[in-house]
Amino acid sequence: MLMLAESNTDEDDEHELRRFLLLSNGGTMRKLPLPEAQRQRCVSTHGWLLTTGEQEFYTKLVNPLTRAQVDLPRLYMIEELYFDQDEWMYYLFSMRKVVFTSPNPLSSDPSFRVIIVWGRIIGFCQPGDVSWTRIKGWEGHLFDISYHGARKRLYVVATMGAIYECDVTNDVLCPKALSRVTTFPGEEFGCSCVPWAYLLEWGCDSLLMVTRERYYFKKHDDEYGRYGPYRTSRFQCFVFGLDDGKWSKIASLGGKAVFIGFNSSFAIDGGEGVKPDCIYFTDDLYEPYHGLPEGGGGDVGIYHMFNGRIETLFESQESVFRSSPPLWLQTSTLPKIKGIK
Fold first, then answer.
1. Bridge partners of residue 278, in order along the sequence
2. Would you place residue 147 in the very low, low, confident or very high pLDDT band (cuts 50, 70, 90)?
3. Is 313 helix (H, G, I), strand (E, B) or coil?
4. Is the pLDDT of residue 331 over 80?
5. Fewer CB in 10 Å around end: N or C, the chain?
């Protein structure tokens, strides 16, 4: 399901409600009370939200369906991360990704970790920690992170499709540092650059890298530069074999659907309202959300791998993306939750 952004109406009760687009229920809209996310910046993984607000830079995990919560260290406890109240908006919109090393933060799994991307920083913690731990060792711009459950490794994709890995659950290995695994051979596939990329587990011995290309209709103005009107134009998918070190391009997702955006990238089998061989995407250029007068978030849709067609997800925008991004939530517990309007 897709959790839409916070309402921008003047009605106080609407701010505590969040709308959800239920793909498995024919694309219907529902509302749930979620005051825990009110005026909070949110990213998502495994059906959970990582929220942070301006007050003291608190972070916590929130389950939007059960409303269970797990407190995490304050973000300013990340080593060498400088915070300034006057620059809050910059840092607020730099929280882009969160992944877990296992699905359930309420379990007693000693290897459970929460890993985040905050601007140019990767940090991780366990529930109960008093501070975050930095992970270092990559070059360029961070695109995405993914935890490979079978390999028990964190994987990172950065500029030009460079892939790095790190063992974040081994307490002996400290400080934590990434090591380069491979760099995407773009020339072999006719790709001169990697404009944006996502990474996810693809079977027990592979990674899937999805590249995203956007078309900019025109510059908004000199101040905002390239963040004028834009739309996603194309995705391409490449598989990297962790055992043989080989890259291959794929034209089909094999009946699966991939979900990307301000969530941890994931794939599920098509069916029950989810279209197979498609990429479901939301707008994750975070600068426009606060840098453009009309806000960000309009670049949302379904990309069909077979013919490159982009389908709108729903017709009415209703200004729901003006202040915060929509988020994909992977969960199978919705029918058991009471109080859905």
1. 257, 304
2. very high
3. coil
4. no
5. C
